[in-house]
Design goal:
Blueprint: H1 2-18, H2 22-29, H3 31-43, H4 46-50, H5 57-64, H6 68-80, E1 84-88, E2 91-94, H7 96-99, H8 110-116, H9 119-125, H10 128-134, H11 138-143, H12 147-152, H13 155-179, E3 187-191, H14 197-205, E4 210-215, H15 223-230, E5 236-240, E6 253-257, H16 265-278, E7 284-289, E8 291-292, H17 303-314, E9 320-321, H18 322-331, E10 334-341, E11 348-354, E12 356-360, E13 367-373
Parallel strand pairs: 3-4, 3-6, 4-5, 6-7, 8-9
Antiparallel strand pairs: 1-2, 7-11, 10-11, 12-13
């Protein structure tokens, strides 16, 4: 018995050692430093500089005009973060994660990573407490304008943002095009469709479908090129406009990918109300968004929750639960339908149908009160 008790005690001690939270805490508090290291590697384009072979700190330091010993420390930091691999003493190659940061490769996520680690983005995050205490964007407080206003005054960052949005949409576009029944629709409007990455994938997969890209002139500035490359330019037109003022009318499906999460309930409902008023009688509204569980489960992926805080810091949006989407749809005159995971991504597709016909206030052009029920 004593021997068995001794083994049990030993097992308990081993388990306690294995669950020591100290290393996890250190990883959390050093997370911001890791972002700075990776961000610098991205801005210097180190993965591209190393290329397909191996480079030493001596070689790289000479090219960048920095001391060899500081370059070596940076390279080893990137290796410890698995962006690079140190194959031998002071010999570095690009790891699989680092390969995604090569802007000279197909499938690159360079622009997305570069934008998310841009000093402007990180400056706003330093004021997270301001946003938590006030509910207002820390970005506006730091820069004296909102995020998109800042982009309009920085063409390089604006271009980076547009490319980043395209890169972040590619995987979602392919998954959505193959998993959703677009055959019920004749025309789909991609609201806030940007450069057309999403609608191009959908039209490529469904030859009988026609599309409309609806975005601001700046947002849709590269859409024509995307459609042409995808071979679908003849089945898709581009319309410039403001989705707070209205959307093109008469489509069977209104597609909104990562649009609704960018706005609080009032403004998000306005966008959805315009879609509800414009869709055909038996049409649908399809949102592609993260859907948070009602409570944070053990071992949850922190990314959607960090993105939720990013929306707080840099704008006026938020990530939502299914219940939040149901209430938002109700506010917009829609009935929430299927909410399904969009594998293999971490997004969900959220379908809604018109539940109310909305009257247009002729004086100000805004969507007004519901005038009748509509089974859709």
């Amino acid at each position: 018995m004593e021997e068995q008790a001794g083994r049990t005690d030993a097992s308990a001690m081993e388990e306690q050692v294995e669950k020591n939270p100290w290393p996890d805490l250190l990883r959390l508090v050093f997370g911001g430093r890791a972002t700075q290291v990776v961000g610098l590697g991205i801005r210097l384009k180190l993965p591209e500089a190393i290329g397909d072979g191996e480079r030493s700190s001596t070689d790289l330091a000479a090219g960048y005009g920095v001391p060899e010993h500081t370059m070596l420390r940076l390279l080893r930091g990137l290796a410890a973060l698995e962006v690079l691999t140190e194959t031998g003493p002071d010999r570095f190659a690009v790891a699989p994660v680092g390969a995604l940061l090569r802007g000279d490769r197909p499938g690159s996520l360079y622009a997305l990573a570069r934008m998310l680690t841009d000093p402007a983005m990180l400056t706003a995050w330093q004021n997270l407490e301001f946003s938590v205490r006030t509910g207002r964007p820390a970005f506006d407080e730091a820069f004296g304008t909102d995020f998109f206003g800042h982009l309009s005054g920085d063409p390089e960052l604006s271009e980076l943002y547009n490319t980043a949005m395209s890169q972040g949409t590619r995987g979602v576009a392919e998954a959505l095009a193959r998993s959703y029944d677009f055959g019920r629709s004749g025309t789909v409007v991609d609201v806030g469709g940007g450069d057309g990455t999403l609608i191009a994938a959908v039209l490529r997969e469904h030859p009988g479908l026609r599309g409309v890209i609806y975005d601001s002139p700046t947002g849709a500035s590269r859409a024509e090129e995307t459609l042409r490359r995808a071979g679908v330019a003849g089945r898709c037109r581009i319309e410039a406009g403001d989705f707070f003022a209205g959307v093109p009318e008469g489509a069977d499906l209104y597609l909104l990918k990562s649009v609704v999460h960018g706005w609080g309930d009032d403004r998000a409902a306005t966008i959805l109300q315009h879609c509800a008023r414009s869709v055909t009688e038996h049409g649908r509204i399809l949102m592609v968004e993260h859907v948070l569980p009602d409570t944070v489960p053990p071992g949850a992926d922190p990314l959607p929750y960090l993105n939720d805080l990013n929306l707080l810091v840099n704008g006026s949006g938020l990530e939502r639960t299914r219940g939040d989407f149901e209430r938002l749809c109700g506010k917009a005159g829609l009935t929430l339908g299927e909410v399904a995971p969009l594998s293999p991504t971490d997004f969900c597709r959220i379908e809604a149908r018109p539940g109310i016909t909305w009257a247009l206030n002729e004086e100000d052009g805004q969507v007004g009160v519901p005038v009748r029920d509509d089974a859709g």
